[in-house]
């Protein structure tokens, strides 16, 4: 049986205050977090095939710049070599897109939107 940690109890015992979830964004710890996410979420489908996240049921085309695709290919190759997990570049892109949309705040979304310009008379 897996032991579940009571983070509130641990924080109280340490005299700390829980401030929310922390996620690594880049560097070594970000790469290790990404690898852990891939290992935890990707499963081989019952009928066989490449591992994927079973919750992904939507299939969409995503346009990419050649530079972005090359970078995704390089990162997925490193994950395969060092982590031993088979992940394709577009699976990696889907995972990164999902993680980023979960982390972005409403204030950051508002920064993307520009007010409409008024038409000149």
What is the secondary structure topology, with strand pairs?
Layout: H1 7-14, H2 27-41, H3 66-83, H4 89-103, H5 106-112
Helix pairs in contact: 3-4
Question: What does this protein look like?
Answer:
The protein has 5 helices and no strands. The protein has one domain (23-112). It is 52% helix and 0% strand. The protein has 121 residues and is mainly alpha-helical. It starts with 6 loop residues before the first helix and ends in a 9-residue tail after the last helix.
> What is the makeup of the main sheet?
none
Q: What count of domains describes the coordinates? A: 1
The helix content is: 40-55%
Principal-axes geometry comes out as extended
Mean pLDDT: 81
Count the strands?
A: 0
List the uncertain runs.
none
N- and C-termini, Cα separation: 72 Å
* Topology as a string of helices (H) and strands (E): HHHHH
What proportion strand?
A: under 5%
The number of helical segments is 5
From the helix content, strand content and strand pairing, which structural class follows? Answer: mainly alpha
Radius of gyration: 20 Å
Summarize the structure.
By secondary structure, the chain is mostly helical.
Q: Any descriptors?
A:
single chain; 121 residues; mainly alpha; 5 helices; 52% helix; 0% strand; extended
């Amino acid at each position: 049986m897996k032991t579940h940690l009571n983070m509130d109890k641990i924080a109280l015992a340490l005299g700390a205050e829980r401030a929310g979830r922390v996620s690594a964004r880049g560097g070594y710890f970000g790469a290790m977090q990404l690898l852990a996410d891939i290992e935890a979420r990707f499963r081989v489908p019952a009928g066989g095939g490449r591992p994927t996240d079973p919750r992904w049921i939507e299939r969409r085309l995503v346009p990419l710049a050649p530079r972005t695709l090359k970078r995704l290919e390089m990162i997925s190759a490193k994950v395969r070599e060092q982590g031993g997990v088979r992940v394709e570049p577009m699976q990696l892109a889907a995972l990164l897109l999902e993680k980023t949309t979960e982390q972005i705040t409403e204030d950051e979304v508002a920064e993307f939107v520009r007010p409409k310009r008024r038409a000149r008379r």
